[in-house]
Amino acid sequence: MSDPTEEPEQPQSVQTEEAASPTTEEPQKPPSEPEPQHYHKTIKVIDILLNATGNVPIMKKRKWAVDANKPIMWIMQFIHKYLKLDAEEQIFLYVNQTFAPAPDQLVRNLYECHGTNGKLVLYYCKNQAWG
């Protein structure tokens, strides 16, 4: 016989497959639903390719890493300074030889919509070429 002063053994918890399954606690999303896209917060730097068009000087370095939160106007000013253009000369930027983005458009937005192979391709010139 066991001693009545002894404490009874605590039952060990036995985990069944039903209890271990996450489907009984919280339903999982079907695989067809995409996960929320938080990548726009994680991208900090975007590679851009700057290609010359028309009668503008060609930059020696074409590939640049740009802060994703910079506006397109910042890139236009950068090119203007890099090429040492006169103050009255303008720079026009085009995305994939198709359209001119608004100067206040963020690089991130253009990359998300028009980026290819991990980079954003921009064409620059002194006069309007496309669009």
What does this structure look like?
This protein has 131 residues and is an alpha+beta fold. It has a domain at 45-125: Roll (Ubiquitin-like (UB roll)), CATH 3.10.20.90. Helices cover 24% and strands 18% of the residues. The chain contains five helices and four strands, in the order αααββαβαβ. The chain has a four-stranded mixed β-sheet.
Total beta strands: 4
Ranges where pLDDT stays below 50 over 5 or more residues in a row are 16-21
Order of helices and strands: HHHEEHEHE
Average of the residue pLDDT scores? 79
The largest sheet, given as strand count, sense and whether it forms a barrel, is: 4 strands, mixed
CATH architecture of the domain at 45-125: Roll
Distance between the termini: 96 Å
Question: What is the number of helical segments per DSSP (H or I, 4+ residues)?
Answer: 5
CATH fold title of the domain at 45-125: Ubiquitin-like (UB roll)
Task: Bin the strand percentage.
Answer: 15-25%
- CATH class type of the domain at 45-125: Alpha Beta
| Global morphology | globular
Give the strand order, joined by hyphens, for the main sheet.
2-1-4-3
Rg is 29 Å
Outline the secondary-structure elements.
Elements: H1 17-20, H2 22-25, H3 39-42, E1 45-52, E2 63-67, H4 72-82, E3 92-95, H5 107-114, E4 119-125
Parallel strand pairs: 1-4
Antiparallel strand pairs: 1-2, 3-4
